[in-house]
Design a protein that fits this description.
By secondary structure, the chain is an alpha/beta fold. Helix content is 51%, strand content 14%. The protein has a seven-stranded mixed sheet, with helices on both faces. A hairpin with a 7-residue loop joins β6 and β7.
Length: 267
C-alpha cells in the first residue's frame, strides 16, 4: 500500500507545482526555468520502470485515474506555455532547449527512416504547436512538403513565424482550421496526430474520407502511466485499417501506425 500513496502524492505534487508555475510565469519570465525543470522531472517520472509497475498495480483506481486526467490537463497547459516561451526565445535568437523538447526532437529523428519520408512526401501534422519541432525536423531532413494544423490561433501564428525564420515557409504551411487541413490532406502520403490532440478517433474519422488509400496515419498517444502526459487511445479500428502499435519505454509517448486494409478507405 505504501507504493500506492507514494504514487498519489507524486501526482498531486506534480499537478500542484505545474499549476502554480504556469500561473507564476505570467508574473515573471524567470519562472520559465522552473517550469522547464518540473516538466523535465515529469518526463523522467514517466520513463521510470518502477513507476510503470506501480501504475499497473494501482492505476485502475478511480482516485488515481482522476488525478491522472487532471495532471494530463495541467501538464498540457504547461507545455503550451513552455513552447510559446521557447518560440519567443528562438525568434529572439536565444537558443535553448529543455529536456522535454530535446526528447521530442530526438524521437522524431529516429522515426524519419522508419516512415519512409522523402522529398516527394506530403505530410499533414495535426497538433503541431507553436514550436513545431517534429515538423521542422521532417522538413529539414527529408525535404517533404508539410501542412501543420493547430486550432490554437496564437500557436498557429507563432508556428508560422518559426517556419518563416527557418526559411521553410514555402515548403511548410501552417493552418488554423480543419477545413484547410482536410483539403490539403487529399494528396497526403503521411499524417501525424500529436500526442496532445485529445479526440484522436474523431480526427481519424474525419481524415478517413479524404486521404488516399496508401496514406500512413501515425498516431502518438500514451496509455497507462504515459496518459498523465499524453491523451490515451483505446479505439478499436476494425477491419478497415491495419494497425501497428509501437511502444518503447524510453519514449514519453507511444505510436500507432494506421494504413487502409480494404477498399473504401480513402480515395
Amino acid at each position: 500500500m505504501k507504493a500506492k500513496y507514494a504514487l498519489l502524492l507524486a501526482l498531486k505534487s506534480f499537478d500542484y507545482e505545474l499549476t502554480h508555475l504556469s500561473s507564476y510565469i505570467r508574473q515573471s519570465a524567470e519562472c520559465f526555468e522552473l517550469l522547464e525543470l518540473k516538466l523535465d522531472a515529469l518526463c523522467r517520472f514517466i520513463l521510470s520502470e518502477d513507476n510503470h509497475s506501480d501504475w499497473s498495480r494501482w492505476g485502475h483506481l478511480d482516485e488515481l485515474k482522476g488525478l491522472g486526467a487532471q495532471l494530463r490537463h495541467t501538464s498540457n497547459q504547461a507545455v503550451c506555455e513552455l513552447e510559446k516561451f521557447q518560440c519567443r526565445r528562438l525568434l529572439g535568437q536565444q537558443n535553448h532547449a529543455s529536456e522535454y523538447l530535446s526528447l521530442l526532437s530526438s524521437s522524431m529523428q529516429e522515426e524519419l527512416e522508419e516512415y519512409e519520408m522523402n522529398s516527394e512526401s506530403r505530410v499533414l501534422f495535426v497538433g503541431s504547436g507553436s514550436l513545431p519541432l517534429s515538423a521542422l525536423t521532417i522538413a529539414r531532413q527529408t525535404g517533404a512538403a508539410l501542412c501543420c494544423l493547430d486550432i490554437d490561433e496564437e500557436a498557429a501564428e507563432m508556428g508560422s513565424r518559426v517556419m518563416k525564420e527557418a526559411g521553410l515557409l514555402g515548403q511548410c504551411r501552417v493552418v488554423n482550421s480543419y477545413e484547410d487541413a482536410l483539403a490539403w490532406s487529399e494528396q497526403a502520403t503521411h499524417v501525424f496526430i500529436a500526442s496532445l490532440v485529445e479526440k484522436k478517433q474523431d480526427v481519424i474519422e474525419r481524415l478517413r474520407v479524404c486521404i488516399p488509400a496508401k496514406t500512413r496515419i501515425i498516431v502518438r498517444y500514451g496509455n497507462g502511466l504515459k496518459s498523465i502526459f499524453n491523451y490515451p487511445l483505446q479505439a478499436e479500428f476494425g477491419s478497415a485499417w491495419q494497425a501497428n502499435a509501437r511502444s518503447r519505454m524510453d519514449r514519453i509517448y507511444d505510436t500507432l501506425i494506421l494504413t487502409a486494409a480494404v477498399e473504401g478507405v480513402g480515395s
